[in-house]
Amino acid sequence: MKSFDWVRSLKEQRPLIAPSLLAADFARLADEVRRVEDAGAKVLHVDVMDGHFVPNISIGVPVVASLRKVTKLPLDVHLMISDPARYAQPFIDAGADTLLFHIEAVPQPEALLESIRSKGAAPGLVLNPGTPVEAVLPYLDLCDLVLTMSVQPGFGGQAFKGEVLDKVRVLAKAVRGDTILSIDGGIGPDTVAAAAAAGIDLFVAGTAVFGADNYTERMNRLRDLARQQY
Fold first, then answer.
1. CB 102 within 8 A of CB 127
2. From the DSSP assignment, how many helices (H) and strands (E) are in the chain?
3. Which residues on adjacent β-strands are paired with residue 125?
4. Residue 104 is part of which domain span?
5. Closest CA to 77 of 68, 26, 69
6. Is 144 a catalytic residue?
7. Given this model, what pLDDT does residue 157 score?
8. Which end of the chain is more exposed for a tag (fewer CB within 10 A), N or C?
9. CA torsion angle for 33, 44, 219, 21 (degrees, to 10)?
10. Which residue has the higher pLDDT, 226 or 60?
11. Mean pLDDT over the full length of the chain
């Protein structure tokens, strides 16, 4: 199994800072997308929450469809929902380029990973801070991306859980060379270097980007700190 060509090309551009649109100003979402594009973003992260798998509700299919109209960047769609198989096709139809779902929601993920790939989107697994890395190891060959949560999912602005980097180190040795390793939660100037040293390629950053006065300066700073670890 190989990753999609565009995924392999994206990985070659690491370190990748993926602004998390959950932290953007939703009243000016198209403008926020343009600002992070101008700041050098190569991918946008979209958090989908259902109020069931996580205790919050966020972006749905219509917002992803609207985002697709205003950007050509890959949309990295993270499904924090209880029934990702039910909604995979609608999100792909809306323009999702990647579709990531939680091993905690789908403990036997082979069929869904294969289905997502067959529909033209890059499939990936996500694991929560308390989930052993062994839960995803049997399925790595089916993943174009693997996302390690470094906070408990559901809310932005949480503190980084450094202990998850032990799992990242295991994953970095176990994944295919063309698989993107991502991390999400508490990523900022104080944490990005340690995550890069552990093997992360793509850093989801919400408040660290959208809370900055200058998006370009902040994203350049995060990239520089990560690049020094490669």
1. yes
2. 9, 8
3. 101, 146
4. 5-227
5. 68
6. no
7. 66
8. C
9. 60
10. 226
11. 95
Question: Would you say residue 155 has pLDDT above 80?
Answer: no
User: Is the omega angle on the peptide bond into residue 15 within 30 degrees of 0, that is, cis?
Assistant: yes
State whether residue 125 is helix, strand or coil: strand
Cα separation, 189 vs 19, in Å, equals: 14
Q: Which of 47, 76, 97, 201 is catalytic?
A: 47
Side-chain half-sphere exposure of 179, counting CA atoms within 13 A? 23
* Alpha-carbon span 221 to 31, nearest angstrom: 22
Q: With 70 as the cut, is the pLDDT of residue 195 above it?
A: yes
Under a CB-based contact definition with an 8 Å cutoff, are residues 41 and 33 in contact?
no
Mean predicted confidence (pLDDT) in 185-194: 96
**Residue 180 in tokens:** 């993107």
Active-site residue, from 76, 97, 144, 184: 184
Mean predicted confidence (pLDDT) in 183-202:
97
Q: Specify whether the CB–CB gap between 70 and 94 falls below 8 A.
A: no
Tell me the CATH number at 30: 3.20.20.70
Residue 206 structure tokens? 């919400």
Q: Domain count of the chain?
A: 1
Residue whose tokens read 């990560």: 226
Q: In sequence order, which residues have a C-beta less than 8 Å from that of residue 210 and are 6 or more positions away?
A: 19, 20, 23, 24, 25, 32
> What is the structure's pLDDT at 1?
78
Task: For residue 184, indicate whether it is catalytic.
Answer: yes
How does DSSP assign 167-222, residue by residue?
HHHHHHHHS-TTPEEEEESS-STTTHHHHHHHT-SEEEESHHHHTSS-HHHHHHHH
